Amino acid sequence: MSTETAATPSTDDTALGEPATPPRGPVTSASYSITVRLTADGDPASIGRIATAVGSAGGAVTAIDVVDSRSDGLTVDVTCSAADAAHSEEMVDALRAVPGVTVRKVSDRTFLLHLGGKLEVASRVPLKTRDDLSMAYTPGVARVCLALADSPDDVRRLTIKGNTVAVVTDGSAVLGLGDIGPGAAMPVMEGKAVLFKRFADIDAWPICLDTQDVDEIVRTVELIAPGFGGINLEDIAAPRCFEIEARLREKLDIPVFHDDQHGTAIVALAALRNALRVVDKRLEDVKIVVAGGGAAGTAIVHLMLKAGARHVLVWDREGILSPDDERLSPAKRDLAERTNPGRVRGELPDALDGADVFIGVSAGNVLPVEALARMAPQAVVFPMANPTPEVDPVRARQHAAVVASGRSDLPNQINNVLAFPGVFRGLLDARAREISDGMLLAAAEAIAGVVTDDQLNANYIIPSVFDPAVTSAVAAAVADQARHEPGATAPVSEVETLTTQ
């Protein structure tokens, strides 16, 4: 997952070796934008020299604002974007070298955006008069409390529970950064909560736990669950995340969704369905290779098999996962038994022989681009590891008919934000108690369906995260599926207006 944020699909927890140093991107990005305050002499050509210096360093000037003007010169804020942090420093050095220019201060705009955090609590009701206070709080609130004590099912309707999600992490597998702890994970969880609000009008809150003990995590979430309508597990390392999710699903009467698994799987399946439409192949016929047997890879394989895929191989640090490999963990052995009954062995390039589809959720640069030539004609390639894909998506186009990745600077970004806001909107609207494979499949179908036949092409297999049709389509599909599954939703009170004698 992992968009994330962008909320994008996270690098799999079974990353092979140390993360590769990300190559400088082909374009500059707002995530590496800076504002440089500088003074320039009175030469009218100074502004031109400033813009030229940034451009010569490969940066992009997005704004030049005059802060102060005097007869002997100007104070100017120059805002520009870079490809990475080192590139930002190169641009500043270039500005320092401009004659007549003095750099005073450099501000990283991404860090400025995070000052004080990205969330706040706001009241949905006015508190302007004595009457307002008496209804919102004491004594009026007591009547509502007593009513809920008598009718617990109404808690979702009369409190924030009906529109609130807990975003829970232990900080053990944050983006592609690894085990950085709960405090360092907070900006990502805040970002996830912001995405919930922006795309689905859901009030989400980051819950960063200072423990990686499975029992403690499960018990903690169980204790706070009464205040939430759903649980979004985030950035928890495999295999621990599997047990946590399974135990919480068994204990709680609200849906538990691990976005690194299920969000990634939904969007990957949606993208694959449309990619196969482009190359005129059927899911049940194609040979699929998945790199990465951790949380994301396992969920992708599971959902593809539920959708009708029949020919899948999974590769990880042990090679192609085979059920007779004694080195495999129980989770990987189960995955091997579901995908490799023929007990094929080999490395990743061997798995690609004759393959129609490659999906990567492992680690950067694990696959030489030349190995893609071993795939079948009209191949589909999804290298989704972050921050560095398994194979260069640009060079992959030499060998593949359709390429998608987790990168926002290239076409076909597979981004979890296409899934989780709509999924939870649908779950909350349906008062769902659980989330099922049927709901995940419905979400994938809905995302794929947003791209019409007229729009579909090799560079547009997945809609933009800003397409307003996505969240509503996913929410409607998930809610409809939930309402048609016996026992999946909480009962709805027959009383339209709750009154208490």
From TrEMBL:
The keyword Membrane does not apply. It comes from the Bacteria. Keywords: Oxidoreductase. The keyword Oxidoreductase applies. Gene3D superfamilies: 3.30.70.260, Malic enzyme, N-terminal domain, NAD(P)-binding Rossmann-like Domain. Transmembrane segments: none annotated. Residues 1-13 have a biased composition (Polar residues). Residues 35-111 form the ACT domain. GO terms for molecular function: malic enzyme activity; NAD binding; oxidoreductase activity, acting on the CH-OH group of donors, NAD or NADP as acceptor. Residues 1-29 are annotated as: Disordered. PANTHER family: NADP-DEPENDENT MALIC ENZYME. This is Malate dehydrogenase (Oxaloacetate-decarboxylating).
